Amino acid sequence: MNSALSIEVVNLTRLAIDPAEVTRLLGGVLESEGVTAGELGVRFVGARRMRELNRDYLGHDEVTDVLAFPLEGDEAPAGVDGLGSDGPEPDGADLGADADAADDAATDMPRLLGDVVVCSRRAATQALAAGTPLAFEIAMLLVHGTLHVLGYDHERDAGEMALRQARHLDDASWEHLLGKA
After folding, report:
1. 35 has which bridge partners?
2. By the 8 A CB rule, do 168 and 31 touch?
3. What single DSSP character describes residue 6?
4. Residue 117 pairs with which residues in a beta bridge?
5. pTM over 0.85
6. Tens of pLDDT along 143-154?
7. In this structure, which CATH number among 3.90.230.10, 3.40.50.1820, 3.40.390.30, 1.10.10.60 belongs to the domain 5-84+98-171?
């Protein structure tokens, strides 16, 4: 994974998640999507906390499997291809040393991509119902949430997000996501 990418994994559940494997999986997704720099937070929570988050932030008083909280506002992550770049300076612009120092300081600041929250209990229930391995369900939810953080929306994109998600899962090794606490 690119050293300019940082993925923080916090597991607040009893499910044994391997943070290094989560980082490897999502680092591959981010790099494949053209993200060269930024910070992504990943949290695994229980059903009660997920219901609270879903209610408080989306107005749905129910447990869901994954929530994505992309960076909001005008500041797009500079590490994403085509986003966050102001473009070249206008011809003849002399911004001086103070502007150069400000630019250097700004590039040292982490670019926050957003957060992905996965409900491990809901993931386990869905994996059991679908007859799929829990590690695959976790991988699918992580990839799905990360694509949402990057701005994809399956409700509006005519299947583009679903295709990307499937491609990432086909390319990924998810078998070792579980096992280390």
Report:
1. 80
2. no
3. E
4. 43, 67
5. no
6. 999 999 999 988
7. 3.40.390.30
Would you state the structure tokens that stand for residue 100, as one six-digit string?
Answer: 């150069």
Looking up tokens 């910070």, which residue turns up? 39
Distance CA(45)–CA(120), nearest Å, equals: 6
Place of tokens 């990418």: 5
Q: For residue range 127-145, what is the model confidence (pLDDT) as tens digits?
A: 999 999 999 999 999 999 9
What contacts 37, CB < 8 A, 6 or more positions away? 2, 4, 5, 77, 78, 79, 111
* Residue reference for tokens 């749905």: 60
Can you spell out the DSSP letters for 57-95? IIS--S--SEEEEE--SS---TTBTTSS---SPPTT---
Distance in angstroms (rounded) separating the CA atoms of residues 141 and 149: 12
Core vs surface per residue 135-163: b (16+ CB within 10 A) or e? bbbbbbbbbbbbbbbbbbeeeeeeeebee
* Token pair belonging to 158: 């005519």
